[in-house]
Amino acid sequence: MACVIAGPALADEASKKAFDVKSTFSNICGFCHEDSGRHAGKGPQLMNSERSDEFLFNRIKKGLPGRMAAFGSAFSDDQIHQIVKFIRNLKTGEEPQNP
């Protein structure tokens, strides 16, 4: 019985933890967007992108068939907005930070 009661409490607590954008980007996006998005790799450089925030949001959420996976089912809209903010804050010679 204790496990049934503790389960939802633990899940609730885990959902309150801050989304670690830097780690997520490094582990998932960094395969194609090198150096935390500051350099091109298999995917384009994201630092200083001229694309709009809306474009970046939609590309992350919906992907691009044959080029980039869709992450809309993996991340909430709020998390995707945080990823876009992370991208916008990238600077040459500075360690990327969580937004």
Could you name the key traits of this structure?
disordered N terminus; globular; Cytochrome Bc1 Complex, Chain D, domain 2; mainly alpha
In CATH, the homologous superfamily goes by the name Cytochrome c-like domain
Please report the total strand number as a whole number: 0
Question: How many domain units?
Answer: 1
Low-confidence stretches: 1-15
Label the overall shape: globular
Q: Largest sheet at a glance?
A: none
Short summary:
This protein is mainly α and 99 residues long. It has helices at residues 2-16, 21-29, 34-37, 53-62, 77-88.
Q: What does the secondary structure layout of this molecule look like, with pairings?
A:
Elements: H1 2-16, H2 21-29, H3 34-37, H4 53-62, H5 77-88
Helix pairs in contact: 4-5
Polypeptide structure, described:
The chain has 99 residues and is mostly helical. It has one domain (19-88): Cytochrome Bc1 Complex, Chain D, domain 2 (Orthogonal Bundle), CATH 1.10.760. Helices cover 51% and strands 0% of the residues. The chain is built from five helices and no strands. The protein has helices spanning 2-16, 21-29, 34-37, 53-62, 77-88.
